[in-house]
Amino acid sequence: MTKQILEVCAYNIQSCLIAEAAGGSRIELCANPTEGGVTPSIGTIELVVEKVSIPSYIMIRPRGGNFVYDANELAVMERDIVACKKLGCPGIVLGLLTVENKVDIENTRRLVELAGPMSVTFHKAFDRVSDPFEALESVIATGCNRILTSGLLATALDGAQVLKKLTEQAAGRIIIMPGGGVRSCNIEQLAQVTGAVEFHSSCILDRNSQIADSNEISAIIDNLKSTLLASSVTV
After folding, report:
1. N or C: where does the chain have the smaller number of CB atoms within 10 Å of the terminal CB?
2. What is the pTM of this model?
């Protein structure tokens, strides 16, 4: 039995509540979309944990820009992880690279160990690496549970063939979660090409809005169900 997951990227409590009501499976909770998402305030995290029943994974990213962090930034990330664990968050999202744009295995592994038993997603910092297949093995070595990636290209649909190869190489050792331009108009094709079972979308149709669109979430889920039915796979 295969269960397909739609993770909705949310920047506020309103989007979290919309995602839950529309049937989303999970939330990636961030702040500051103009910087690609950073750690939300403790008040926002507390309120989402209190009011939203679907799992919320919290972005652990102290600033925008690159993904190479100094000792003080790592210390901030450690404290944020501990705070999330104390609040009972089921998961976090992070991504650390070296100056050579390789996965920072040592520091990532240390943060993953600190986060346990929370689930850990390695985010789209992965798309900055030069060799995704080498990077896949590095992320697996850190103990992360999944990788959010568009296959190193602008959108997940553009990178669908790389995503397919990553999913095949992962062979169940880690989840490959396509994200980047995932919409109701392309989710069926993306699912069929990549073989992925988890997908990530902002579900925001208006570029000037930070609020997820309930109809778009529902449409993506309906299209995923259609893909499963066409493949004779049980949800």
Report:
1. N
2. 0.95
